[in-house]
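Supplementary Methods, section 5.1.

A reviewer requested that the exact input to the structure prediction be made available. We therefore reproduce it here, unchanged from the version used in the analyses.
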Amino acid sequence: MTDASARNKRNKRKGSQWESDLRDGLRSEGFDVESLRLAGAEDEGDMVVRLGGEFLVIEAKNAKLEPATFVREAGVERLNFAKHRGLDERAVTSIAVVKARGKNWRQAYVLTTLENYLGLEST
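The structure derived from this sequence is encoded token-by-token as follows.
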């Protein structure tokens, strides 16, 4: 195994562990969380939290902070999630949750746009 492939395997394992920690942490606080498993162009995010009749799609990241990339990816996955389930897009929001180095899931960074955060119409 090359150094690069060993590093990629380690990073994938760390990313999977981060997703599990985040999911389990949210569940321990009483949130209704489901892991999502689609990949590629039709990816729906890493997990979804059910909030009454609405849904919060989470893209979990354990990587160098790239806000624009992460928020854009979460937005695309929000639309995929809604489309695959025949949901009104307005019933689905999305965030990117980025692991803070050396911190637990509660100290993670939440990324979105002001438009999404305040529920403003897209322009």
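The CA atoms of residues 97 and 110 lie 5 Å apart. These observations are discussed further in the main text.
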